[in-house]
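Batch manifest, entry 17 of 40.
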Amino acid sequence: MWFRLLAAIMFTLAGGCAGIAVSQQLRHRQEVCAAIGSLLRDISVCIRSVGMNVYDIAAKLRGEPAYKELTFLSLLPVDFSEGENFRESWQNALNSQEFPEEERSILAELGNMLGRTDAEGQLAGLDVLEERIRCLESERRSVFIEKGRMYRSAGVLFGVMAGILVI
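Output type: structure tokens
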């Protein structure tokens, strides 16, 4: 009898853990959006205040702990090399990390835009990308709030149901 009770408790815990894992995936998506928003704002400041080029920006971003969710930044070149295309390097680095499609699209546009026009053109493009990521982050936050709790509760509920079936 104690074996069945132990199995029921294990099923309940497993269901709860599964629900928490799915909820954490939703939270991670929200954190990635927040990191991209911060990235866009920092790049705007670098261009607006100092007029940094793409390689200086890449060097500055590599060491920032605020971008731990954006591991592809560590693969960006920080010095100009003959025959190297920064946009291709950006795309290759971006492809090394998994992102949801919307975030990938914004980051790909950012890589294509950096260094292509004068500072004013880049700042205008950054403003558009910031607005898009702000909307996306708001969407991700509301999805996490609405569905995160549901996934956690459903996981525990299904675990309890499986546990009852075992007993």
